[in-house]
Amino acid sequence: MSRRAADSDAPIDLEAVEQELRAREAELSQRLERFAAAPERGSGLGFGKRVGDGTIEAVSRMTDAGVGEALEPAEARVKRALVKLEEGTYGVCDSCGEAIPTARLRFAPASVTCVSCARG
Known about the structure:
Number of helices: 5
Radius of gyration: 20 Å
Low-confidence stretches: 1-6
Number of strands: 0
Distance between the termini: 32 Å
Strand content: under 5%
Largest sheet: none
Structural class: mainly alpha
Mean pLDDT: 80
Helix content: 55-70%
Shape: elongated
Order of helices and strands: HHHHH
């Protein structure tokens, strides 16, 4: 058996997983708060009469909003994984109830579904 295969079969250190997930949750929360913050007073956003007037700022804010929307599902997965740790169901697929492969949990600790259910 290769070292990689042996490592993937080793039990997962749940305390280390929880620490990693809590750090990720804090990071995501901080990033989402920044995206949700109201613009500074007096930094009116608008498109001027000429192309370019306020366009860069408007595009930047729209991009930030898109990034924020993309971060929300990641934050939800992390929070769900933390709940599963507390419940004692970490490593069990939320969709089908089967075990999530250890290799998947090592690669993506916030996984709450197996690969088959995640695809589908």
